[in-house]
Design brief:
Elements (H helix, E strand, L loop, with lengths): L1 H23 L7 H12 L12 H21 L2 H5 L1 H23 L6 H11 L5 H10 L6 H24 L5 H28 L2 H8 L7 H19 L4 H15 L5 H25 L3 H6 L1 H24 L10 H11 L4 H12 L5 H27 L5 H10 L4 H32 L4 H24 L4 H19 L14 H7 L7
Length: 520
């Protein structure tokens, strides 16, 4: 027990110091997640041995950190987005990546052995670390943007579909037994959502009591959220399903039960999660990396990362490129951004390699290399994704070809392409402006239309001023805008609030599609 508390003290110290270290790095281009993983690898049992991550208590806390990570990820995802056009395309693309991943597995026999090994390798290449990406997307100001929504659409299936596939394809049970368990879990989730939703709609005494005591010492809303999370995680653990699935489901249920954003509850959840449990999860995940094994086999690490790009990123780029609607088709650099962000992988690599090593189809050294590769993607893929998001080029492939042919003229070539992109951006701004005006003109009530126009103009100005002064807090202002939009809409209408992006774009959306939301 003493050693466990020493390890926890070291973990808490790392979690407290890492933000300061990240702040000292120029331009803060290394995510805190990467530093947490690296610290865990250095201080874990395979190196200095200060952190004893094999302690059962620490393993439980780490699992809770993973659960919190995916609870918050599930909460951010609208179930409607899974069945939307983007969501369906994300699922189809994932299915293609699974087939491609298994095909690539035959080319990489050094990763795993046997038919089950090929399936495990294929699944490793299809995953997206959506839970890991959520804080990165939030810090980079991508949540609520078109690029961010597409990352969620592709990334959700890269996480959710992979978890379900792992439960079915790598389970020691028969497929029908796993299907029955998954169905039972779905029915449990529906029951919780229906009972909770009915209590909220009728406003019965129990719900009123919960709401009244939510901010007291009882913290009733927070405790019930924890109950739902731990109940579904326990269900997953009892039936030997990855806890990610239970945590994801808890996030979906929480979103359904809190259709109006509960900022107080989310502040408490994020404080608990990001303040302790999630950093602990990343540190413990890092402690499982055997750096000596990685150093002995750097080639496999590079090959696996390249395979991830081929299997996961390339199909997403192709999927985004076949969009027929020119208004919805992303520019090349934004397609690359979505693809690279969606190729970030880690938590499920840890889970799948753990299952594979238990089945003795992947060696422990190979598993360490693959987990290390996953950790590298947490740093590398968001970095490339953010660079491609910010660096705008009208014709990137042509620019690269011209630079390769005449490297001495790189400055002239880049300048010419920058001018082209500015011209294209101006054209898209005009298209966006006309689109906004059409949507405003479609509002029949003149007073509502006038107020909506003023609201759009005010929020556009707020966005512009805010992004210039403090970009990293964009998520907070978006919540404010959603509340304002919802209030104005309910002033004139009943029922569900439409997507606010049907009325106007934020500045980040302008960057996504080279659009500007300025209204005359």
């Amino acid at each position: 027990m003493t050693q466990t508390f020493i390890s926890l003290t070291v973990i808490a110290a790392i979690a407290a110091v890492v933000p300061l270290i990240a702040r000292l790095i120029p331009k803060q281009f290394v995510p805190e997640t990467v530093l947490l993983i690296a610290a865990g690898a250095l201080l874990g049992p395979h190196m200095f041995g200060i952190i004893r991550s094999s302690s059962e208590s620490i393993i439980v806390l780490s699992d809770l950190g993973c659960a919190f990570l995916f609870l918050l990820a599930g909460y951010e995802i609208s179930p409607r987005s899974l069945t939307s056009k983007d969501g369906r395309r994300g699922l189809i693309t994932w299915g293609f990546t699974l087939v491609l991943g298994i095909a690539v597995a035959f080319i990489l026999p050094q990763i795993a052995s046997g038919s089950q090994g090929k399936i495990a390798t294929g699944l490793l290449l299809t995953t997206t670390a959506l839970g890991t990406l959520m804080p990165i997307l939030k810090d980079n100001g991508l949540l609520g943007t078109r690029v961010g929504d597409l990352i969620l659409a592709y990334g959700t299936w890269g996480e959710l579909a992979t978890v379900i596939a792992v439960a079915i394809l790598l389970s020691t049970r028969q497929a029908w037994a796993t299907a029955v368990i998954l169905l039972a879990m779905l029915l449990l989730c529906i029951w919780i959502a229906v009972v909770g939703g009915r209590a909220i709609q009728t406003g019965n005494r129990i719900y009123r009591f919960i709401e009244e005591r939510a901010e007291s010492n009882s913290q009733t809303m927070f405790r019930i959220t924890m109950l739902i999370l731990i109940l579904l995680v326990a269900f997953s653990s009892i039936f030997d399903i990855d806890i990610v699935l239970g945590a994801f489901a808890a996030g979906f249920i929480l979103r359904f039960l809190t259709k109006q954003e509960n900022e107080s509850l989310m502040t408490k959840l994020e404080g608990t999660a990001y303040g302790f449990f999630i950093p602990l999860f990343f540190i413990v995940s890092g402690s499982g990396i055997n750096l000596k094994a990685v150093i002995r086999n750097p080639g496999l690490l590079i090959i696996f990362i390249v395979a991830l790009v081929v299997v996961r990123a390339v199909p997403i780029i192709v999927s985004l490129s076949i969009e027929k609607d020119p208004d919805k088709r992303l520019t090349w650099h934004n397609r690359l951004s979505v693809a690279f962000y969606s190729t970030t992988a880690l938590p499920l690599i840890v889970a799948i390699t753990g299952i594979a090593t238990n089945h003795k189809i992947i060696s422990t050294d190979t598993a360490s290399v693959l987990v290390a590769a996953g950790a590298v993607t947490v740093f590398l893929m968001p970095l490339i994704g953010q660079i491609t998001y910010k660096v705008v080029d009208a014709e990137p492939i042509k620019a690269i070809s011209e630079i390769a042919h005449s490297p001495n003229d790189i400055r002239t070539i880049m300048h010419e392409h920058l001018i082209k992109e500015r011209e294209r951006a101006a054209m898209y701004r005009e298209i966006a402006k006309k689109r906004i005006i059409r949507r405003l003109d479609a509002i029949e009530d003149p007073q509502e239309r006038d107020e909506m126009r003023k609201l759009i103009k005010k929020q556009t100005q707020e966005n512009a001023a805010f992004l210039e002064s403090q970009r990293l807090e964009g998520y907070t202002i978006r919540l404010k805008h959603r509340a304002e939009f919802r209030h104005l809409y309910h002033k004139y209408h009943d029922g569900d609030v439409p997507d606010m992006r049907d009325y106007f774009f934020g500045e980040d959306d302008a960057q996504d599609e080279s659009l500007s939301p300025h209204v005359a």
